[in-house]
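Practice problem: HTH gntR-type domain-containing protein
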Amino acid sequence: MTDSWLIPTAKSTRDLVFDMLRDRILSGELRHGEKLSEVPLAERLGVSRTPLREALARLTAAGYLQPAESTGLVVVDPFQNLDELIIRRAALDAVAAHLAARRASDAQLAALMAITEQYRRTDPLDLAERRGLNHRFHAAITTAANSHQVAREAEHFQLFFASDRLMQALTPDETEGAIRDHMLIAEAIRARDPFEAERLAREHIYGAYRRYLSPE
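Answer key — structure tokens:
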């Protein structure tokens, strides 16, 4: 039986360590308040301390970790500022959809429409498939935006919002609404209507997570 925490030697890079730890924080396997120490963590992951140290610095900068009172780092609840993240995600998705409507190649449009159709046929109760297709849909729009800056900023948000904690919270009606939203956004991008695509993308995020946006 293999240890699911062990990073394969051929892939023991800073980015893979970052991805693994981020995913475990989002899933709750690494719990809020849990302390991480560099030496035992490096041994558990099977990596040297240099890429681990770099990954931990990135996780701290991204808000997943914070310095402990003494030494080491502690896990931060990534959902504690969810309202702010939703607002930022809505703005970024709106930009990506606007640019995609302007810049997408024919091949990128075809890929987006294929994913949208596949998502439409997905069983709303199949969380794993919905999560994967939801990520692919938004990633396809990001790719079609043809913007390195948007791509860099979008990666964190797309993976965060594809976490089980948020996907499982969606009701069947909200899931059906999200599927309809995806179809409308994709059609606006295919129609080369950047302002409509932008509006729909923003409203899609607000609609899906409105329950978390309580007034101050």
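Discussion: The beta strands are 35-36, 65-67, 73-75. Students who identified this feature from the tokens alone can consider the problem solved.
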